[in-house]
Fold:
Amino acid sequence: MTDIAVTTQRGIVQGTCDDRFKGVLEAFVENFQSQDEVGASVAITLEGRTLVDLWGGQKTVGGEPWARDTIGVVYSCTKGASALCAHMAVDRGLLDLDAPVTRYWPAFGQAGKDGALVSMMLDHSVGLPSVRTPLKAGAFYDYDYMVEVLAKEAPFWKPGTRNGYHGITSAWTVGEMVHRSTAKRMGLFLRDEVTGPLGVDFWMGLPEEHEARVAPMIPAPVDAVARNSRMAQAMRADPTGPTAMFMGSMGGFSANSRAAHAAEIGSANGISNGRGLAGLYAPLANGGSLNGVRLVGPDTLTRMGLVSVATHEDATLAIPTRFSLGFMKSMDNRALENTASCSAILSEAAFGHVGAGGSIGFADPACKMSFGYSMNRMGQGILLNPRGQALVDAAYRALGYRSNASGVWTL
Structure:
């Protein structure tokens, strides 16, 4: 391992990097030099060993440096942690993916949702990508309130007949599957069963004593490309459709508020960094166990990586998507119009989740790699922007992968 200290226009990039992953270091530095990165971290484990652990830039524009223990909101990367909790419940025999949701949550069977299966809560096909019900101020910070709202809500489509990204609502659809099957709310389950035993810095409900470590998120500006994206077009075409309702119903969520950090929103408010994301996925890259901590067995791990739904037009995101049960799979939309930063190209074996603005965490069991990247200046698009994809590409090249022309990285 080589100790790193490289000066960039945003400050010093620090950490350690195995010589094999020199290309990742170069891409990380280049992001600060030419891609307007402000503050960021990236980490990679291989066969359970951390071979890349880099951080750098600024916690705020022109402010204090991004430190080794700086953390930030990783948005939908949180969904990967939530899905992991659900699969652990399945692995322990507490939750049945093929069972009706009403076995665990009887009230959910209202308004045409009685045929919903547990698996549909995980693969974005249950029909609740948003809610039509007007929400109170601060709704997303009130877990019990949102559970009651979703139980009563009519679906946008018959559960299981199509899929549309449940960008916020999966906090409570998946969350209640974990809560009702394990008798623990998901934030507590995650802390007790995953992050605590692994020693991973990933929070779903951040204790106040860690607040000073949080880097505020810098929103991406809305430019002409964003205004002409497929999501923007879908919102204009149908103001009452899933896309518009999802984007327009944030329940007062403000990512830089203490209330958002303290809440348990299992789809959107996880707080971590590159090291935490890579650490979360490291056991899943190594058979489901690491350093004496067992998360899932081989059958469950296999299921976690299998494509469950794929579509040419996601009902919410308005782009082609591919999901396993709770995780994103490699998605290649590079050849389509109005899809800038709407791809996330991994290997076919990999599974994980991106977060708004371009953060990502994933496991690749085929090469026993886990990967995490977080930043504070959000990029445009739905999936990875050039900063994150450059790091992923460099990681696969370091392992001898040849090409991603097929839509996945191949040897």
